[in-house]
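Hi everyone,

Forwarding the result from last night's run.
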Amino acid sequence: MNRSTENEELSLQSAPFLKKRKEGMEMSYIRRPWQIVSLIYKSKVFKIEPLLFLYMFSRFFFTPLYQQYYFVRFGSDLLQNTSFPFPNGSFCLNSSLVDKYAGCNAHKTVESYSTNLLLYGQLAVRIPGMITVLIVGPLSDRFGRKLVLLLALFGNLLQSILAFFIIWFQLNPYYFILSNFFTGLCGDFTGVLAGSFSYIADVSSPKWRTFRIGIIEGMLAIGGALGQFLSGYWLNQNSCNFLPIMGSVVACCLVSLLWVLFLVPESLSRKERLKRIEEKPNAVQVALRGLKMFLGRVPQYSAWKLWAAVVMLNLPLFNTEGNILISVYFLKAPPFDVDATVIGILQSMQSVARAVSVTLVLFSFSVALRLPDSVSAFVGISFQMAANILTGFANKTFQLYFIVVVQGVEAISWAAGRSLMSKLVSKGDQGALFSVVASIQSVVSLLSSLLWPPLYPLTQTNNLPPGFIFLIMALFDVLAYPMIIALMVSQLSQRWKSSKVPSNTVTSSQDKETDKLLVSGQKFYSS
């Protein structure tokens, strides 16, 4: 064997990613594109973040759309027997037009119908969604996270298709309740959250988990901001023609489903899934695992810390959900009375502020300064309370541009709460944990729907400021402080005790896997 042949054989053995091409005795090495794609696919890096960006883009694209569609439909019905000059084709309505042709304070009747329909829709989606996620969430600890994600995304696609036909054929708006019920049966937003945060907990180490969850919150905020802005701008430009916008939502839901189906690998290996199936063969016990953790039936977990973290997470979300539900009606009413474009700009600024907070601010807190998650939550909820107080006394539109930026910092309390909870349980119970957390969040969202929309019209009197309902929200923010302080004391005391114990430079299994992936990636790209 000559030296040339020997070098060729050694090269083939040491370079499996290189392609041999024979041209006489000459060798050329060409990197195979499909192998680069395979490496990216199997790396499990930056797979959930684009999904959540697209999902939230479509969700916030149609959430303001629904609110304004209800207002236009119910407002048009109220104006049928008046002198209102109905144009040929689509048109927009605001409170001033309704009051001008239907009588003083007629817009409150339209708001009442709209908020009631929003409430019924929330009931239709939250209750079945909570039950579905409580079942499939713990099962994802055995069968993988894609099960939860695909089911929820299929439900969203079905909902958007039904909504498209409701708008196209101008069916009764109450048919939206039926479309919400179908997506609730599949898990809806609750299922997407449970599957996504469980996935991140599987593939990230505790050191970086808070920041990774913060990135997810950032994607949620950025996608929501872009969706809100484009939705408001598009509505204003096409005279509130809702049909093409709903068609875009259908396309986004389809792309999200295909993304998970073909581009997102399972966070758990097949060997790990089979191992968990052998360890927990009873599916009923697996489904009840999350409830047992919160009821103190699993000795290795602290139930009071889990509940404290739940309160720390959900009280700010309780107010945020209420803010979303009433913001359009609040901004369309005096003294602001703004159009869809301004509403989209304000909501987008708030979402961008949230994205910056959960990336730059949260990175500084959790990674650079290494502050406990409870401290980050304390800062976030304090900014939310300050924004609610400022909104309560606001009476000029320009003031709102500052307030939404202040309120955006609230998002770090969401990421900090989820990260803290994920560190309280083992890797094998993340699905059970986040299924219960997502279900509780669904209940909180439902309670928010039951309280804030019906309460808002009652606060619109001459004796109270227009934003008085936001002052009530600020009082709810105060209720979270005892839990946050208790967790803060617990985390700081544990850190103080651990600082006295000599460290043995123990590396977690997730850190080892991450290091192994990085080393293999460096070798691959340096070859």
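The chain has two domains: 8-32, 46-81+89-498.

Cheers,
N.
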